[in-house]
Amino acid sequence: MSSVPLVLGIETSCDETGVGIVRGHTLLGESLASSVDEHARFGGVVPEVASRAHLEAMVPTMQRALDQAGVTLADIDAIAVTAGPGLAGALLVGVAAAKGYALAAEKPIYGVNHLAAHVAVDTLEHGPLPEPAIALLVSGGHSSLLLVEDLARGVQPLGATIDDAAGEAFDKVARLLGLPFPGGPWIDKAAREGDGASITFPRGLTGPRDQAEHRFDFSFSGLKTAVARWVEARERDGERVPVNDVAASFQEAVCDVLTAKAIAACRDRGVDTLVIGGGVAANSRLRVLAEERAAKYGIAVRVPRPKLCTDNGAMVAALGSHLVAAGVAPSRLDLPADSAMPLTSVVA
Amino acid sequence: MLVLVVDTATPAITAALAEVTEEGTRVLAERVTVDGKAHGERLAPQIEAALTEAGVKPRDLAAIVAGTGPGPFTGLRVGLMTAAAMGNALGVPTYGVCSLDGLGAPLSGHALVATDARRKEVYWAVYADGVRVDGPHVDRPAEVSPGAATTAVGQGALVYADVLGLPVPPDEPIYPSAFELARLAAPRILSGEPGERLVPLYLRRPDAVEPGARKHVS
Hints:
In chain A, helix 10 (243-269) packs parallel to helix 11. By secondary structure, chain A is an alpha/beta fold. Chain A folds into two domains: 6-121 and 312-325, Nucleotidyltransferase, domain 5; 130-304, Nucleotidyltransferase, domain 5 (2-Layer Sandwich), CATH 3.30.420.40. A five-stranded mixed sheet of chain A has the order 3-2-1-4-5, with helices on both faces. A five-stranded mixed sheet of chain A has the order 8-7-6-9-10, sandwiched between helices. Helices cover 45% and strands 18% of the residues of chain A. By secondary structure, chain B is α/β, with parallel strands linked by helices. Chain B is built from six helices and nine strands; from the N terminus they run E-E-E-H-E-H-E-H-E-E-E-E-H-H-H. Chain B has helices at 39-54, 73-90, 101-104, 155-159, 161-164, 178-190, and strands at 2-7, 12-21, 24-34, 63-67, 94-97, 110-116, 122-128, 131-139, 151-153. Chain B is 28% helix and 28% strand. Chain B folds into two domains: 2-99 and 176-190, ATPase, nucleotide binding domain (Nucleotidyltransferase, domain 5, 2-Layer Sandwich); 101-164, ATPase, nucleotide binding domain (Nucleotidyltransferase, domain 5), CATH 3.30.420. The interface between A and B is large, with 44 and 39 residues.
């Protein structure tokens, strides 16, 4: 067992400071510190606030993860860190920390792609990922459909949002409905008491012309505006806004498009595994709808538990573990943080 | 005792290995590059290079000294995070020193130290025979009160010499000296004083505004 490398992962691409420790596909320890409460009053993540919080939280978070795993840094075989994409200043804190730990402990460092890590984390729950697979990554910062043929070498982007990320739309609609930040869990909760078929909101990029040009792309900006118009019209007429129905109908529109395009991508590429990751993957309706639709075509849906879907250190360690096992060479000590790191590079 | 010194509070990315003894402090190896946008890339390789040149392994280090700024946030955090991670990994104490002291400590008489804070401002402090008597502050150059200072030192002093109205000695360094930072921390290192958490001197709040009332779309 001990011949399987022990890999530590560090994540700081947004507002979560995460450290995870993985051996093979087994998560041994993880710790997470979040600055989400500090951002709530601003209605979104403030990059400088996040960067400051990462610097404060890193060492205690590292210590907790090591303690939980019952190992020391000397036991670690490699250190993986999110090099991008993400908030530049926030990424830089994690990369600097990883370099400090790697230098001091004389370990190899892997600067890895955050989105690829969202795919890799599923291996901690469901074991090795069948390849090829289609991955749907949906969070506050990303909405992408990916073809995963070899996770250690690169991932092929099939489509992405052309405006707002799905999670961003959840935040904005939540604010519109007077629900707290971050909006995802609150919309999900309100939607359970509402009727998702009560209001027909637009499904972005699903028209005939979009099918040619933006077949696997997403757009949520128009949907957000449509919800705002609908709500404002009720307010103007002095009518009560049916928050639960609006939440459910909005959520239905998002989940409908996400799952329809994900299943279409699977069928288009003849792939029978769909992995869903990112914070929005914690949405209960998305999980149900994806499984319902996938079942019709014999597609297996893999969604890690919600705690692994949102940003964390375990996902970075999981990808690092996969890279080490695949014999991928580590990064150099001058590896940069790359806020726009392309998916075609899994290692910086 | 072997001590690693880092400072990333200015465009100078500084890594040095110093030896601190009761007899004094000396720098064994040093790597400095000036690039305001490459702290994240350059610092770690420079640390490695300085250690390698001196034939020292990371585990031989007894302490880490870091310049805590003030300085532009992003670069400053690179130095402090790297230093804190190394201190944590090696189980050795970390000590912070105000980066401006790395310029002001060797000066005799009354002197102003100013570094570039961007946004047309400077980070500044006033020194009397090497001891900081005012600051650190961040202000527009015209708002700096140099007190009894008769000279000004540092890159900010150079850039804003016209506004500050103080002569800038041509032979003084314009970026914090690793030797001075090590020397200033030496008493704490030698007496085995407990290390401290490295807290950056930001001096400015994050730029962030709370959202106002909802904007209407129609």
